[in-house]
Design brief:
two-stranded parallel ribbon, single chain, 1 helix, little secondary structure, about 5% helix, elongated
Length: about 210
């Protein structure tokens, strides 16, 4: 699909969002959009299931409640993108740039965010169960009340992150950086693995059975 065809789909999608005659929802499942220019594109509620967006520029894009499940988003630029309640289950986001992205309530179960940048991202209430966050940068990210059960957070940078009331049961935080992180009432269990020398009780965390 070339940029001209894509722009036409985006135009019709905006019309659909505004309930205008001739509008049509963007249905881009399985479509290859490598390196596409989608800066500030309005893709709210768009269907991008299993789309290949590797290397695309989606900075500042609007993707609220969009279906990006199983999509290929390696090295995608999603800086400041709005992905509230978006479906990103099992998506491949390896080395993606989500700096400052708005992911409140997003579904990320099983997604691969290895070495992704999520610095200062809003992940409140996000579903990150079984997500791969190996070496991810979550500097000052807001993970308040997020679901991180059985997530792989090895070597992740959580410096200054807000993990208050987050669910960390079964999560692996081996060698993760937790300097200045807020962990008030965050949940953990016998299967949670902390960095060497880390005492959850000193951070007012709550153990569950």
């Amino acid at each position: 699909m070339n940029q001209e065809e894509l722009n036409e789909i985006l135009e019709k999608h905006e019309m659909w969002l505004d309930d205008e005659e001739g509008g049509e929802r963007a249905k881009l499942a399985w479509v290859t959009l490598k390196d596409a220019d989608l800066v500030k594109a309005n893709l709210n509620l768009a269907i991008l299931y299993k789309a290949n967006l590797t290397g695309a520029n989606l900075s500042g894009a609007y993707l609220t409640e969009a279906d990006l499940s199983f999509a290929y988003l390696m090295e995608v630029n999603l800086k400041e993108a709005i992905l509230r309640r978006a479906d990103l289950r099992e998506a491949k986001l390896i080395r993606a740039d989500l700096t400052g992205a708005k992911l409140r309530g997003a579904k990320l179960r099983g997604a691969d965010l290895t070495r992704a940048s999520l610095a200062k991202a809003d992940l409140t209430f996000a579903y990150l169960t079984e997500t791969d966050l190996l070496e991810a940068d979550l500097y000052k990210a807001n993970l308040n009340e997020s679901h991180l059960g059985w997530a792989d957070l090895r070597l992740a940078n959580l410096t200054g992150a807000n993990l208050s009331r987050a669910n960390l049961t079964g999560a692996d935080l081996t060698r993760a950086k937790l300097n200045g992180a807020q962990l008030y009432m965050a949940l953990y269990d016998d299967y949670t693995i902390f960095p060497e020398g880390f005492d959850p009780k000193q951070h007012n965390m709550r153990k569950v059975n």
